[in-house]
Write a structure and sequence with these properties.
100 residues; mainly alpha; Arc Repressor Mutant, subunit A; 2 strands; globular
Amino acid sequence: MTFSEQIISIIKRIPRGKVATYGQIAALAGNPRGARAVIWLLHSSSGKEKLPWHRVINGKGQISLKPGQGYEEQRVMLESEGVEFDLYGRVDMERYRWKP
């Protein structure tokens, strides 16, 4: 299985109500320095692969998309699954991080 195929497989396994980081997914796929590849795959393949893209956030526990460019959609999707944000727009990674 290629690195890209591993990334796709991992993202598809993130359960409802949980999040994973770009770096976490890259490490699980075998390349701890491959976070940018995860970002690229999410950008290019989310629709085609039916990926739960909204469950992937950055290492700070925040949504990386900018307001007006997908931030609101991602936040609503996560909140609809029970993921809560603090006043600074961060997710409690101890509580919501997916631990496969």
